[in-house]
């Protein structure tokens, strides 16, 4: 599958041309743009750009998008900017409970009917795991195993292909960040967390691992990943945590660029998130509206470099966040802020791709009804409305606002053109076979990244290896991870016993000082490493991840087969970034 890309200047140029052409389109029900005089006003967010490039060809994604937009009626335009979730794990047949959920959400029974009725531009597949900080706005699950996902996405895409915009493939996205936010967990190659990649500090390893991950997503029919996380972890944020590449904006930016290039080389759109930087607040936007009190200068220096790196790497999408940035637009969530999305993200950072909202079913976005919220988000500069809490109301609100002029036609046309440009950028590449999932090459890429992340924060590098039998213990609820490490240690030649051996104690997501073990010879942090600052063990290690690849890498270190090369990407009180040289 080939790399996907767009030329930002060409996209901007085409947007200006098509916006000027279609701003005068008729807003009457059922009519095509251009068939009657204008009633909409010019969008304030239309980018200033020169005339379309003479080098543009009919096959250019932006040119194809402009041509298709010219054929779409009002209802089609509105549908293309909506990307809701749906209940059910199949496209056309769902359980009674899922049908009831879809009726409450959108007045239909199945995901296919939702696509057909609202002429949707995309659909997000949702679900959550036990340690997932985003589970509060994941009301259902669409994923079970790769075969089921492939069948679901095939059915969804067949339904979308019958729409007026069907020439452009349906966007099917999910949050496959790896680490605590991972929607598809069975039968796929699981990468170590972003924080582990930050500890490894090698963008080439990150790119290779994310290319493998992108290939597997594409094989399941997923063409948009709402990843990587570009938030710089300057606070002890539980909601961002190990989803971040670390506390250094430049080093995090290098990792973001690697992840973007890897995903898009596999034909999957990367989505850099959560702009303007969720790592600068410890509060959780799944519960309330976090406040960023930093100065604009500090945000520009500390929060925005990874987003710039993602833009420069060619990211096709950026996700806006429900954050109150007091230095830029006080009291207005960034999702609804023209100043942040249009003036800063587009004007200063130069992003010309698709801006997608964070989940509109989250509390900060629900201060308005679904229709008004969708209109406000579009007018601020978003192009895709993600997870509206009621699809019918969001759709009707956008259509009404388009027709009464409160949503400028030019702004909607601009948004749809961007969405279709991204779709055409993703079109045409073959879908890999499911046999590409979890191949030795993919597992090796994940293992290489995990091995480079293992960090010694206390103890000598040449004394980490354990002589004699090992007893693996952990905080509660981690039997699966203990078993994975036990298996990996055994394969590495280390004898594991139920008790009486050298104690290796594992701590993970959400663990605190009370979850430590005083008699452990080795304590290992499998998520944020902050808790190690309170551990008494003579040897402290961090993998930042509990993936199988990370447990295999840890086993090699404990068996003396590898020296841990990682450096902690966040500061741990009283401990160095590593005790190893170099």
TrEMBL record:
GO terms for molecular function: hydrolase activity. It comes from Micromonospora fiedleri. Coiled coil: none annotated. The keyword Signal applies. Belongs to the glycosyl hydrolase 3 family. The keyword Membrane does not apply. Residues 33-46 have a biased composition (Low complexity). This is beta-N-acetylhexosaminidase. Residues 1-29 form the signal peptide. PANTHER family: BETA-HEXOSAMINIDASE (PTHR30480:SF13), BETA-HEXOSAMINIDASE-RELATED (PTHR30480). Pfam families: Glyco_hydro_3.
